[in-house]
């Protein structure tokens, strides 16, 4: 028991040192490089469906976002896609999602994020919460933990609402999840990319969907433009040393 207690204390102390170093690094001046990690479901991964076949495409919102950021800042900015199809925010929190998505994917969120050098973390969930019959309250709790943990580790979390779903019944349930994401963003005072509102207001947006959940590449590009408007000021401030 004493050995277990000693090990737990050692892990806790190491985590505290890591948080301190991360915060000091943020406060030490301009960043030489900004790393952005994008976490989410298949709409983050970039699934598109065509002729009955669905698969990840290189033309997705994360790759388009990196293209836009690098067009402005060059190789000083890199965006990494950690989207995993079929996953929920609670799985990211608990480390129970697809373990093939990177060497730290099987770790709980706090450990996984502590091992990441990214300064900005994008979080996009909601659709699978609907499909797996989670409650909005469960989703709210999971996203709140994701955001609080990221902040505690010196990261800048950015929440994204899901794109809407063409099925009216499912979309009504998704709207309740979207409301939770907006609530977390407001309560925790973190940036929000409201993709649900943006896409829902596009004329004939359903024609931009490849199936009941996944955008076509053209809509992924439009989503990336919305992401860019929120992420770009954060990147600029990190490079300037003002964030």
Automatic annotation (TrEMBL):
InterPro entries: Ester_Hydrolysis_Enzymes, SGNH_hydro, SGNH_hydro_sf. Keywords: Signal. PANTHER family: THIOESTERASE 1/PROTEASE 1/LYSOPHOSPHOLIPASE L1 (PTHR30383). This is Lysophospholipase L1. It comes from Paraburkholderia aspalathi. Residues 1-27 form the signal peptide. It holds the Pfam family Lipase_GDSL_2. One of its GO terms (molecular function) is hydrolase activity, acting on ester bonds. Residues 38-221 form the SGNH hydrolase-type esterase domain.
